[in-house]
Structure formats: C-alpha cells, structure tokens
Amino acid sequence: xxxxxxxxxxxxxxxxxxxxxxxxxxxxxxxxxxxxxxxxxxxxxxxxxxxxxxxxxxxxxxxxxxxxxxxxxxxxxxxxxxxxxxxxxxxxxxxxxxxxxxxxxxxxxxxxxxxxxxxxxxxxxxxxxxxxxxxxxxxxxxxxxxxxxxxxxxxxxxxxxxxxxxxxxxxxxxxxxxxxxxxxxxxxxxxxxxxxxxxxxxxxxxxxxxxxxxxxxxxxxxxxxxxxxxx
Length: 231
Known about the structure:
Mean pLDDT: 96
Shape: globular
Low-confidence stretches: none
C-alpha cells in the first residue's frame, strides 16, 4: 500500500518559483552578494541593472497544479503566459489565466523570455533542457527549475550561463542532490537554493497530518484517500 500527499505544496512551490523569477530577472542575488562582500560603492543610474517582468513572456513547461498556480501569480506581474503540456487544458482553465497553448516544446522554448519547468521526472523528460534546447532559448533569457534536477543537463547549462547566452538561471533542484556541481555554484548569474519548494511550517505540518489520516483510514480497514494506484 502506497499513499502520498497531493496538492499540499502547490502554493509553496509556486511562491518559490515566482521568487526565483524575480531574483534572477532583477539580479537581486548577485547584487546582495556584492553588498555583503563590501564591493558596493553606492547608487548609480546604470548600476546593477536587471530586467522588469511586465510584458515579458513566461513559458511554462508542465501545466499541472503547480504550473497553473505559477501562472496565476505571474499574471499579477503582467507576464504573458504560454504553456506546453501533454494535453491542452480546457478553455475554462486557460481563459482566466490568459494562457496560450503551444503544442511544440521547441517553439515555446524559443519564444519565452523566462522558461519555468514543472513537469515530472521520467525517461522522456531526462535532460529535457539539453544543449540543443538551451541553445534555442533567446539570448539573455532566464531558466527556472523547481521541478526535478534531471530535467536539465547541468553541464550544458554551465556553458550557456558562462558564455552569456542565458541571462541567468534559478534552480531549487539539482541532478545529484545533495551534491551540487561546484562549477554551477561559482556562476554569478545563477540563483541556487537547497530544494526549498515545500519548506514551510504550514506545508510540512499539513503533510504530516495527511500521512496520519491515511494510516488511520487504512488501520480501520478502509481504503486510504490518497492511495497511489498502479498505472
């Protein structure tokens, strides 16, 4: 018997995704590090410039619960939403989000100013963002991954960040957690977090209570509400 805790961390992960988008676009991470290192010499009109979000195009890969929650938040910042998913969403979901479906992943990647990954880890999504696809991204665009580390070819990402093709990246997940490629961490245009998507007091408590409820239901001879069935 296997159970899980679906949907409890949707908002927490979507919040984190928006935070990464903002920090990467506005260069908050590297600017803060400069300040801490004592390298800031005062305000200047052209100093530490980033990019605003209004009017930019956000490409969402994987439009499940988390992808939709990210889209809701992104709309408040004036971002245009395009998405790729295995199946197109009903119009009743697309319309409130003003989200446009793009069935071809390569086309979505090439159109996005910011690309965020929310698809599951599977054989067909491993290194979904490989050297070829990273090369399709607009020069100066941004990649966000709060999904699974294996979705991104990290060696290829290091190259595209180092040569300036990408403006920056925000990662909460890595290929070999908890071991992170030190070459990634040396990059000034990378925001790196230690898998914090679900790290809230409220979310973890709710997950624990859900686990207890599933166990109690099973112990009483009933089918747990969150049983995972074979596919």
